[in-house]
Amino acid sequence: VSSDKDCIVFGFSHFLGDIIDCIEAGGGALKAVVLNVPETPYPGRLSLRERLHRLKYKVPVFTFDEWYPAHWTPDHLRWQNYVIGFSGSQMKPLLGRLKELCIPFEPLVHQTAILQKGAAIGAGAIVNAGAIVGPWARIGEHTILNRGCTIGHDCVVGPYGFVSPGATLCSHVTLGENVKVGANATILPDVQVGSDAVIGAGAVVLEDVPAGVMVAGVPAVVKKEARKP
Ligand SMILES: CC(C)(COP(=O)(O)OP(=O)(O)OC[C@H]1O[C@@H](n2cnc3c(N)ncnc32)[C@H](O)[C@@H]1OP(=O)(O)O)[C@@H](O)C(=O)NCCC(=O)NCCS
Question: Residue 222 is inside which H or E element, if any?
Answer without folding.
Answer: strand 221-224
